[in-house]
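Ticket #4471: structure export looks truncated?
Reporter: QA, pipeline team
Priority: medium

Steps to reproduce: submit the single chain below to the structure queue and open the exported record.
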Amino acid sequence: MTTNIPTIILASSSIYRQQLLTKLGLNFKSLAPNVDETKYPSETIEQMVMRLSLNKAKAVAKQQPDAIVIASDQTASLNEQAIGKAGNYQSAFNQLKNQSGQTIVFYTGLAVYNPADQTYLSAMDTTLVEFRQLSDTQIHNYLMAEQPYDCAGSFKSEGLGVCLFNRIQTQDPNALIGLPLIMLTQLLDQIGISLPIAKLATRQDDQN
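Actual output as written to the record:
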């Protein structure tokens, strides 16, 4: 049974990552890492995502050295070119127009800081999203319905965005939203936190 869990900090201000981490039943705080996310000229997208995940964890661990720190970074790629957040309707429309009939790759890095020995564990999830051939009307209707302007690729896979795809190839659908929970569960297990934690069982016992 897992006991005496240190403070857990999610190194992110993303509401999507906060909602995902809540699914694991852990008590945690969120703290923005405030790191420079500029891509190095010699880096691949995968290398950048892994570096930024670790840098985010390190930035928060420096402030909170006694806490477990969970950090993640994600970048989407089409034909080896990074896809960012659209920010507005026209940019989102252009993104989806370009992605129509294409397959884009989402790289989601994960880093966990273990205060017990001051080490970092890391992992990478790769998810492929194959888009349908989309008409201008379909793109417009989707954007009006969901307005996913703060999402890389201009869609929400957990919502109406599923209408845009032929298929998604992934080990963990949570990764596409921003945090690979299956990998996170495995990394937490490596540092002695075995999920689900005991308090979840206690809640069930209290109901009996």
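Status: closed, not a bug. The export was complete when the record was re-opened. Leaving a note from the reviewer for reference: The longest helix spans residues 45-63.
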